[in-house]
Amino acid sequence: MATVHLRIGDLVWGKLGRYPPWPGKIVSPPKDLKKPRGKKCHFVKFFGTEDHAWIKVEQLKPYHAHKEEMIKINKGKRFQQAVDAVEDFLKKAKGKEQNSDGKGDSKGKKTPNKPLKILDEDDEDLSALKDPSEKPASSMEPISKRLKIIEEVTGSTSIQAADSTAINGSITPTDKRIGFLGLGLMGSGIVSNLLKMGHIVTVWNRTAEKCDLFIQEGARLGRTPAEVASMCDITFSCVSDPKAARDLVLGPSGVLQGIRPGKCYVEMSTVDPETITELSQVITSRGGRFLEAPVAGSQQLSNDGMLVILAAGDRTVYEDCSSCFQAMGKTSFFLGEAGNAARMMLILNMVQGSFMATIAEGLTLAQATGQSQQTFLDILCQGQMASTFVDQKCQNILQGNFKPDYYLKHIQKDLRLAISMGDMANHPTPMAAAANEVYKRAKALDQSDNDISAVYRAYIH
């Protein structure tokens, strides 16, 4: 196979890690950004985004020669917008070239054709390459400058959302030392993405064997939560429930023993607001800085770096976690004071859990009345409720595949906490209460460690 020689200005398809190939252009790197040692690579600016990265030469392909191939294997909306932007740009550039061909000098001679210009980032027409739905922003700016601010109607809470650049892999990792406690379904994917994006990560897990894979990927091992917190600038935790979250901080050799002034602790577990308030108080009492950041998603979304992060607490910690949140998620929201993210997360999971139980109920009712469950799913996926979630969960049920993507026991815990939160606010939650009973029935049928779609079995036993 002939070697393709690429140079600055060439249009290419660039692939980084597990992310899909994306249209880009080889450009000169910033003066302060050094080329990775021992690697043959080019600095690529991706179209339709603010993303850029060093890409190995073997992960680059000429744009025109592989255009049809790439379009066949990538179908996303953002991908299509990026391709459309490149094509629009090329048409405009070609038009300008043709116009220049028709102009002669004073003696009637045509001026020689100029080579097609591939715009650099400083060129005025670069906006033609960008997704029109995205506002201009430098990926090198602090997250506070890239945030889109939306005020709620009540005016009590500011919400900031920032799109992750993880989809194209162009993240400048923080130089802060990162600690991560808890390598379960969600934590494992998060840590993997932090490492892949160049973060320095120290890990700890109650079952130490789970750390081995990440040590092989470049992580460091912490012997206790206290040791991790003392060694690292920012320590994340992601565990199963409020008791586990408290024990991790307050227990023997817990995080609190490693907290010193300026140390940051980020609680990513889905827990109740009261637990968050307690943890925030004990961390800050030692001079530490606290942020809660539960995540909406599943094991697959965690592995793909496409989680939604809900953060609240110390805003400066949120900004310090910018590159981490970009590595693990597609979007992050800052919801104000500590406790707000826990409340929002419980509401979201209450809706999801109730919806899943209703879908299971519909499938079993279809079967009980002699209707095809597959036809029910086909119709559902053509209507207003169509979604990846509905399709995947229904397919799991029809195939009898309940491998956990989000544990049933955890969604039941979230429903219970949401109902309790409603009681404290004197707000009725009858739908969630009914769904909670179905999940309790499923747990009694030994479905706790299966996926939430296993709630289906509560209707057939």
Explained architecture:
- Residues 104-169 have low confidence and may be disordered.
- This protein has 461 residues and is of the alpha/beta class.
- The strands form 2 sheets. Strands 6, 7, 8, 9, 10, 11, 12, 13, 14, 15 and 16 form an 11-stranded mixed sheet that branches.
- Strand 12 (264-267), helix 8 and strand 13 form a beta-alpha-beta unit.
- It has 3 domains: 10-90, SH3 type barrels (Roll), CATH 2.30.30; 178-338, NAD(P)-binding Rossmann-like Domain (Rossmann fold, 3-Layer(aba) Sandwich); 344-458, N-(1-d-carboxylethyl)-l-norvaline Dehydrogenase, domain 2 (Orthogonal Bundle).
- It has helices spanning 67-73, 77-101, 143-146, 185-196, 212-216, 225-231, 242-250, 273-285, 299-303, 315-320, 322-328, 340-368, 373-380, 388-399, 408-424, 430-444, 457-460; strands at residues 11-14, 22-26, 41-46, 52-56, 60-62, 148-151, 158-163, 178-181, 201-204, 220-221, 234-237, 264-267, 289-292, 295-296, 307-313, 329-334.
- The chain starts with 10 loop residues before the first strand and ends with a helix.
Secondary-structure blueprint of this entry?
Elements: E1 11-14, E2 22-26, E3 41-46, E4 52-56, E5 60-62, H1 67-73, H2 77-101, H3 143-146, E6 148-151, E7 158-163, E8 178-181, H4 185-196, E9 201-204, H5 212-216, E10 220-221, H6 225-231, E11 234-237, H7 242-250, E12 264-267, H8 273-285, E13 289-292, E14 295-296, H9 299-303, E15 307-313, H10 315-320, H11 322-328, E16 329-334, H12 340-368, H13 373-380, H14 388-399, H15 408-424, H16 430-444, H17 457-460
Parallel strand pairs: 8-9, 8-11, 9-10, 11-12, 12-13, 15-16
Antiparallel strand pairs: 1-2, 1-5, 2-3, 3-4, 6-7, 7-16, 13-15, 14-15
Helix pairs in contact: 12-14, 12-15, 12-16, 13-14, 15-16
